[in-house]
Design goal:
Largest sheet: 9 strands, mixed, barrel
Number of strands: 10
Helix content: 10-25%
Strand content: over 45%
Radius of gyration: 15 Å
Length: 163
């Protein structure tokens, strides 16, 4: 199980996905910038089912661990919607994660200026526990764990390498 945080600026900007093994450590084990706009992902989430598939077809990276692949083709609910890029956490990202470190699950808004030392606009976020399933060297997935076991938002991210 990992802690997954999906976040993005309220007005424009891309969605980010961050996976952490420990919420107290602000260095993510995986940080991806998805080219899907925050507003588009919110619209997809209103339908109650979101599947994001990230596919790598770069033959030169066949022996590379999935978390180190720098660029992915992005599919959202079966439609190609752009790309995803692996990123290193910036100081601003680490400050934002530090702001949320006491939270295990939840969704909301971090108001602009709340993350000290930054001049960012409001950041929407959804933080939850994810089951991480490693299917082998060429596939890994993250599945949101619904805390109350009831019907609700289903959200999954798949990392797939095609040979």
């Amino acid at each position: 199980m990992v802690i997954g945080t999906i976040f993005g600026q309220r007005r424009g900007g891309h969605v980010w996905f961050c996976a952490q093994h420990d919420r107290l450590n602000t260095k993510p084990s995986l940080l991806l910038e998805l080219s899907i706009p925050t507003t588009t992902l919110i619209e997809e989430m209103r339908c109650g089912l979101v599947r994001i598939a990230l596919e790598s077809t770069d033959l030169e990276l066949n022996n590379c661990p999935l978390h180190l692949i720098p660029m992915w083709t992005l599919f959202c609910n079966g439609r190609k919607t752009g790309f995803a890029v692996r990123r290193r956490a910036t100081q601003q990202t680490r400050l934002m994660l530090k702001t949320m470190q006491s939270m295990t699950i939840g969704a909301g808004v971090i108001p602009s200026g709340l993350v000290s030392g930054t001049a960012c606009e409001d950041v929407l976020y959804m933080r939850a526990n994810y089951e991480c399933i490693i299917g082998g060297a060429d596939s890994e997935s993250f599945h949101l764990i619904n805390p109350d076991e009831g019907p609700g938002q289903e959200f999954s991210i798949f990392l797939l390498r095609s040979k």
